[in-house]
Design brief:
The chain is mainly alpha-helical. The protein contains 4 helices and 2 strands. It has one domain: Arc Repressor Mutant, subunit A, CATH 1.10.10. Helix 1 crosses helix 4.
């Protein structure tokens, strides 16, 4: 698969979801996250389960019982390492 392929691979989708959370001051509700991630509800649910299980994100509730996604330290680390891998791929034209 080359970089111009429209379909995102799993690692890229996870990166995109985590990046969206980070770009929203590390706190975003489910509906906007779903919309910004450009995934179907079903696909989003599968990724959500996995990234919660892997402890990249956690869900917090405010006083009004509204749920927000936030990154964990592991989620921030994923973002950093993904960027390193991307730079490596670009540097070596892979």
């Amino acid at each position: 698969m080359n970089n111009k392929t429209l379909k995102r691979d799993k690692l890229k989708v996870i990166y995109d979801i985590l990046k969206i959370i980070r770009e929203h001051n590390n706190s975003i509700r489910a509906t906007p996250l779903l919309r910004f991630s450009n995934l179907s509800f079903r696909s989003f649910s599968e990724y959500e389960s996995e990234i919660i299980q892997k402890e990249f994100i956690k869900i917090i509730e405010d006083k009004k019982k509204k749920k927000y996604y936030t990154l964990t330290s592991k989620g921030f680390e994923y973002l950093d390492k993904y960027k390193l891998i991307q730079r490596f791929i670009e540097d070596f034209d892979l």
